[in-house]
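Quick one, tokens below:
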């Protein structure tokens, strides 16, 4: 078999050898994308600034250099493959999907330039944009795969670099599209365009790394999926890091650790008192605690009981299908709708005043659908062999459910409850509508000490439960949005930091509890 025929038959092979030169060339765009993403993300969140040099170079110069290097490597990779200087197995074409993608990029670029820069409207911008887009798509589709992947990607990077070099787009650039009340800033667009262009280059590099063909497309798909997963995690990490950066210092200011058991954390243990050194959020923390406790007490027994009935007793038919649709719909209902329900139905029955009790009930209604859904799934996952073995021993159905089914499903039930608690603990809209009180409270609600017996039904009252309260989400809303704590942004960021700790602690508790029950079941 000739060398050309061998190359043709190996295009769709699952593995293929490739030269070290190709490996080096193709890995460079991937590495440049990682660098561009780190630097660009740091710029977007404010850790890096265009006014401050990076390793002695202006930040705009760094972005331009990354784009030029990525584009040059991609063009060199495509040329080396086409001239057979490196061993690759490209297909005859990149396919319709890739060519359509590059065509859409060209259509968008020409359309924006014609409509917004030159002021053309209607068909006057759509016609040239369509012509250029179709032309680019056709050229990419006609070209061999190695050129169709690397050349458009490289030219895209070089085009963005040219816009930076010619100062068409720079940090001082602004863009206000006609008909839209928004202004795009160069300080945002420069890192975003750099990340986008190097991302496309990284995808092309992943294709080239495996020598194009079926294996190259698989590598490109893995790059896209892996990058997407990494971006989701990185965005979460950046969000947490940003909150910690802005709120940690204020939150831990003045912490005292003395001999014995003396420990004082002013921001967490103080109320909002003008006569103390550090204004704190202790009333909001206590309010959040009681809201969560009340919601759990209401939702968990009802939810688990409903799940047991629907799974173990009710016949699977139209009734259970309707309930399943209803619970899924309730879980996806916006929280403000629950808040409006509480305001219309509960608040008038509690003296037309916002109260902790109304907030507990509303948050309990929000938590209930998730408890039902997760508990049903956890109970369904228990093997039928457990039930059959219990029945064979003469154990009643209820005793089987109580002693076998529910303990086996407990990890899933606990996980669902903790996830739901993490959500309701951070809800603002329902609390704002049915519970909110003055966020500048000095004292926390004394729920346990407010119970009193009366001579009339219901023979017991609790003034704290029937009074409004603050909570961490509402405190954060008041601190940042309405400025109720003055002009110091550190208070708001510190509140966000504590709220983040509270929510994350619920997830940690959930993970630990799940591990405990799993070990207990396996023992």
């Amino acid at each position: 078999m000739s060398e050309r025929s061998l190359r043709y038959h190996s295009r769709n092979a699952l593995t293929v050898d490739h030269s070290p030169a190709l490996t080096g060339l193709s890995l460079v765009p991937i590495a440049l994308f990682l660098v561009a993403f780190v630097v660009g993300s740091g710029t977007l969140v404010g850790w890096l600034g265009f006014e401050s040099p990076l390793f002695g170079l202006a930040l705009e110069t760094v972005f331009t250099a990354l784009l030029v290097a990525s584009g040059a490597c991609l063009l060199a990779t495509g040329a080396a493959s086409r001239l057979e200087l490196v061993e690759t197995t490209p297909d005859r074409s990149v396919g319709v999907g890739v060519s359509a993608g590059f065509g859409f990029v060209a259509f968008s670029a020409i359309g924006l330039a014609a409509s917004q820069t030159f002021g053309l409207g209607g068909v006057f911008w759509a016609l040239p944009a369509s012509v250029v887009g179709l032309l680019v798509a056709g050229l990419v589709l006609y070209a061999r795969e190695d050129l169709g992947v690397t050349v458009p990607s490289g030219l895209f990077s070089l085009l963005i670099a040219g816009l930076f070099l010619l100062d068409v787009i720079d940090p001082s650039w602004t863009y206000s599209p006609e008909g839209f009340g928004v202004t795009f800033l160069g300080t945002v667009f420069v890192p975003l365009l750099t990340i986008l262009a190097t991302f496309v280059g990284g995808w092309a590099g992943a294709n080239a790394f495996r020598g194009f063909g079926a294996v190259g497309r698989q590598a490109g798909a893995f790059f896209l999926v892996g990058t997407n997963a990494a971006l989701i995690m990185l965005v979460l990490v950046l969000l947490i890091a940003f909150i910690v950066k802005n709120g940690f210092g204020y939150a831990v200011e003045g912490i005292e650790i003395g001999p014995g058991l003396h420990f004082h954390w002013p921001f967490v243990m103080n109320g909002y008192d003008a006569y103390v050194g550090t204004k704190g959020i202790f009333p909001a923390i206590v309010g959040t605690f009681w809201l969560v406790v009340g919601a759990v007490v209401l939702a968990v027994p009802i939810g688990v009981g409903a799940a047991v009935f629907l799974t173990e007793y009710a016949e699977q038919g139209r009734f259970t299908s309707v309930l399943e649709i209803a619970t899924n719909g309730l879980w996806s209902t916006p929280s403000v709708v629950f808040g409006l329900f509480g305001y219309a139905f509960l608040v008038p029955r509690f003296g037309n005043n916002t109260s902790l009790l109304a907030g507990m009930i509303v948050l309990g209604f929000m938590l209930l659908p998730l408890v039902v859904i997760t508990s049903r799934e956890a109970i369904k996952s228990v093997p039928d062999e457990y039930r059959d073995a219990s029945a064979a021993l003469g154990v009643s159905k209820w005793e089987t459910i109580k002693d076998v089914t529910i303990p086996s499903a407990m990890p899933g039930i606990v996980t669902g409850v903790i996830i739901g608690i993490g959500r309701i603990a951070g809800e603002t809209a329902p609390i704002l509508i049915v519970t909110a009180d003055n966020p500048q409270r000095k004292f926390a609600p004394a729920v346990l000490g407010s119970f009193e017996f009366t001579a009339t039904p219901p023979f017991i009252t609790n003034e704290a439960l029937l009074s409004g309260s603050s909570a961490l989400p509402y405190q954060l809303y008041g601190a940042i949005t309405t400025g109720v704590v003055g002009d110091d942004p550190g208070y708001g960021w510190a509140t966000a930091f504590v709220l983040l700790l509270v929510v994350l602690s619920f997830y940690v508790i959930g993970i630990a509890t799940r591990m405990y029950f799993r070990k207990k079941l396996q023992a």
